[in-house]
Amino acid sequence: EVKVALPPSPLPPAPARTLGDLLDARPRPYHEALPVLLNVVRRIRQIQAGGEIHEPITPQTVRLRRDGMPELTAHPPVQARDTRAIPAPRNSAPELLRGSFQPAEWRNESATVYSLGLIFYEIVLGSERFAGQLPEVFQKNNDLAWLEWQANPEAHLAVLPVPEFPAEVSRFFERALAK
């Protein structure tokens, strides 16, 4: 029996897939995105049931393993002192932009639902059509424009009618994106 040792690969390991990899100019069918969304929700519930908090929900912080299951970094709750951090203005829930911001607020259910709803709405609608709904924000293309839009209770994203969406999918997006 001959054993051959392979030299280590000179290439870095392939980066983990993230929800950001699902964002595309073209829409992704909701029936493809829905299982991913449900698995992310299950993982968040597991983290919260264990008394931990998760990272803020962004397309980059939700990593997808090869089997499609999501990975989120979880850690015990901590209180930041004299700190205000906005992890991802584009995907931050409005309540995270008002008042004091503490990492424990990341597990706020409405903030998590809003962030997930925004990300998955863009996935199933397609980035081009999504951007067309908010031209004033996308034209500026900066974090301040997103912060202003997200913090404005009068500004909202109307869920576009998509014939392929069952009524319950449209209702989910309407509820999730309500400020």
Write the layout of secondary structure elements.
Blueprint: E1 17-18, H1 30-49, E2 53-54, E3 63-64, E4 70-71, E5 74-75, H2 109-125, H3 127-133, H4 135-140, H5 143-151, H6 167-176
Antiparallel strand pairs: 1-3, 2-5, 3-4
Helix pairs in contact: 1-2, 2-3
Describe the structure concisely for a colleague.
The chain is mainly alpha-helical. The protein has helices spanning 30-49, 109-125, 127-133, 135-140, 143-151, 167-176; strands at residues 17-18, 53-54, 63-64, 70-71, 74-75.
Order of helices and strands: EHEEEEHHHHH
Q: What's the number of helices?
A: 6
Biggest sheet: strands side by side, in what order? 1-3-4
Structural class per helix/strand content?
mainly alpha
Radius of gyration: 18 Å
- Uncertain ranges: none
Largest sheet: 3 strands, antiparallel
- Beta-strand fraction estimate: 5-15%
Distance between the termini: 67 Å
Strand segment tally: 5
Question: Roughly what percent helix?
Answer: 25-40%
What is the 3D shape? globular
How confident overall, as mean pLDDT?
A: 77
The multimeric state of the shown protein is single chain
